[in-house]
Design brief:
The complex is a heterodimer of chains A (290) and B (381). With 290 residues, chain A is mostly helical. Chain A has 12 helices and no strands. Chain B contains 8 helices and 21 strands. In chain B, α2 crosses α3 and α2 packs parallel to α4. The chains are: A mainly alpha (290), B alpha+beta (381).
């Protein structure tokens, strides 16, 4: 019996020590998360307050409320047209990406091509290079030869080329998850391939198309390098490029204009995200609820 | 309405698999026909080849008086119900049913009217504005059937029509399906791996194995006189007992017992020949007391199957392999089950025994003149 008592004691102290360690670990984890959260939240907070501040600094603070900054921005000759230019570029690229990616993904999903997966992964790897800095010189050269310098079409085509592989990759997953019996069923009823695509495949993978469309818009919206190099004048430049010009004569960043423009610049994408997400729901893998 | 005629139909997949091997088959107008077999036997390929979703590598398919071998599925005038029903998830029930008519360019009002009427026939009127995701499995199946009916095809093709339903619903759907087919009178071919489903639904069954048809017949023929040991083992909820036997003059030496040779094959056997003696567990009577002309052995397993039990006995094998045993199964009604370890005697009912030589049935596969079956399992045993 004497050996039993110490063992019982030990089992009683053991859980309490574990509990203390548990609580400490949890506190540590939360503190760490708070620091990380603050790190990311502060710039957003600044974005929300600085545009309404009379004299914004680079610190987030309670603003001296004013709308003068917006008035000043409206006076800038390029600010508002640049947002419109961004819409053109983003919209055009998204349209091309979604259309071509849907067709390619459908074909790759349904037709057996030898080395299909290797092809996809290869393209995915190369795509990060296409819109990257490394290929800018040859791309510029190419655009020059094709007379696509200072043309929106040139920017759209290059951005489309860069985004397509990843878009095909995402959409192929959606297509793979759509049962072939849908299409076969329509085929038995006499539907043509184009009708099958229009009536069945596109509606069924619509969440995937929406995801890819939003993703393409966000990518183009934030792209600086390609339009900066290929478009000459400020009248065609998108917002990301115009942002770069918002400096005072002294070469200092004009925080009043910059913060206000940043807010206007981020709102459309954020709104689009909310709208599409509520309408279709984002999913990066295929499948439909049945 | 049309008959289906298959001649020398062959399908070889690019990887060399021979899914259909020179099949000949005739399905009569208005018939409810089952393609039955284990998975991989080619039954689904056959159905898809009739639909036109697979192109045959050789042979021909005729539906009615048209050769449809090389026609695309949309021009064959068939409708197919898929195993997963393939209802379009983004369309309402109404649009789903109207879809074949939309393809045929029927006006919107007309096709919606037609969809509503078809839905009404199948008791789906209340569900017209729902989406497939909001329906139960049984309702989804009926919508799929309604969609197939809406375009008035000459032939219905059903791929595993009941396999996606749970056990209870399956019985209900089986009765519903049989009645619907009777009423519509449309030639219907369905695929199943479930022999009970095939026996219950079909007018005739083709049992397939390895891309070939092993037997075609009515459920009664296929059940009572399987043409070969494959069909014998496949059909029936309890597989047929197949016991090695040797011909000894007018008798058969089966598992150390002499049984008379069945009358219908008496002239076709030679003395000393090795054959297989087949009898269904349902056609054996169990007795705890010695009986004449009975196989005897020790009870090993008793499986309770509700109103009856399946009893397995170890029966000593025929003379050359003295010491070895063969397993024989017998159906025993409730209340008469023996205990494992008991010694029991099983008597084959007259006219129910079959003799197989090299795996093939001796004698005709058509129903021979046999005494009327006694009602109830072993009612007077």
């Amino acid at each position: 019996m004497s050996t039993v008592t110490p063992t019982a004691d030990e089992t009683r102290t053991e859980p309490s020590r574990v509990a203390v360690r548990d609580v400490l670990a949890r506190i540590g984890r939360y503190v760490f998360l708070c620091v990380v959260l603050a790190f990311f939240a502060l710039p957003l907070l600044w974005l929300a307050t600085a545009p309404f501040d009379d004299t914004p600094t680079i610190a987030a603070s309670l603003p001296q409320f004013t709308l003068d900054n917006f008035r000043a921005l409206l006076d800038n000759p390029y600010a508002m047209t640049s947002l419109l230019n961004s819409v053109w570029l983003a919209g055009g690229t998204a349209l091309l990406v979604v259309t071509f990616a849907a067709l390619a993904a459908y074909a790759l999903s349904r037709v057996r091509v030898p080395g299909r997966d290797a092809l996809l992964y290869g393209l995915l790897l190369l795509s990060s290079i296409v819109t990257g800095t490394a290929t800018m010189v040859p791309l510029f050269e190419l655009a020059f030869r094709l007379n696509l310098i200072d043309s929106r079409l040139g920017v759209i085509l290059i951005l489309t080329g860069g985004l397509l592989p990843a878009a095909i990759f995402i959409l192929k997953d959606f297509m793979d998850a759509t049962p072939t019996s849908y299409e076969e069923s329509a085929r038995v009823f006499g539907a043509s391939p184009l009708q099958i695509m229009r009536h069945i495949v596109v509606p069924v993978v619509r969440p995937g198309l929406a995801t890819v469309g939003v993703w393409a818009v966000a990518n183009v919206w934030g792209n600086f390098l390609v339009p900066f190099l290929l478009l000459r004048g400020p009248d065609k430049a998108p917002a990301a490029v115009i942002m770069y010009t918002l400096y005072t004569e002294g070469g200092q960043a004009d925080l009043r204009l910059l913060s206000t423009f940043s807010l206007l610049y981020s709102l459309p994408v954020a709104l689009m995200f909310v709208f599409v997400s509520s309408r279709y729901g984002f999913r990066f893998h295929g499948g439909i609820k049945r | 309405m049309a008959a289906i005629t298959l001649r020398e139909l062959t399908k070889v997949y690019p990887n060399g698999v021979r899914a259909l091997d020179a099949l000949d088959l005739e399905i009569a107008d208005g018939e409810f026909f089952a393609l039955l077999g284990p998975s991989g036997c080619g039954k689904t390929t056959l159905l898809r080849t009739i639909a036109g979703l697979e192109l045959s590598s050789g042979g021909s398919v005729r539906i009615g008086d048209r050769d449809v071998t090389s026609l695309p599925p949309g021009q064959r005038d068939v409708a197919m119900v898929f195993q997963d029903y393939a209802l379009f998830p983004h369309m309402t029930v109404r649009d789903n049913i109207a879809y074949p008519l939309r393809i045929k360019k029927v006006g919107k009002a007309d096709r919606q009217d037609k969809a509503a009427r078809t839905a009404d026939e199948l008791g789906l009127s209340a569900l017209l504005d729902r989406r497939p995701g909001q329906l139960s499995g049984g309702q989804q199946q009926r919508v799929a059937l309604a969609r197939a009916m809406a375009c008035h095809p000459q032939v219905f093709l059903l791929d595993e029509p009941l396999s996606n339903l749970d056990a209870r619903l399956r019985l209900e759907a089986r009765t519903f399906l049989k009645r619907l087919q009777r009423e519509l009178g449309v030639t219907t071919v369905f695929v199943t791996h479930d022999q009970a489903e095939a026996l219950a639904l079909a007018d005739r069954i083709a049992v397939m194995e390895g891309g070939r048809i092993r037997q075609v017949g009515t459920p009664t023929e296929v059940f009572r006189r399987p043409a070969n040991t494959f069909v014998a083992g496949f059909i029936g909820s309890t597989p047929m007992n197949l016991v090695p036997a040797r011909v000894r003059g007018d008798e058969l030496a089966v598992a150390a017992v002499r049984l008379p040779v069945p009358e219908d094959v008496r002239g076709e056997l030679t003395d000393g020949e090795q054959v297989v003696y087949g009898v269904r567990p349902e056609y054996l009577d169990y007795s705890p007391e010695p009986a004449s002309g009975a196989l005897t052995g020790q009870v090993v397993v008793v499986e309770n199957l509700g109103s009856f039990s399946l009893v397995s006995l170890d029966v000593p094998a025929e003379e050359p392999d003295a010491g070895a045993t063969t397993s024989v199964q017998v159906v025993v009604p409730e209340g008469r089950e023996p205990e494992p370890g008991d010694t029991g005697w099983v008597t084959p009912r007259p006219g129910r025994s079959l003799i197989y030589r090299d795996g093939e049935l001796i004698g005709s596969t058509a129903e021979a003149a046999v005494p009327a079956p006694r009602t109830g399992v072993g009612a007077d045993a």
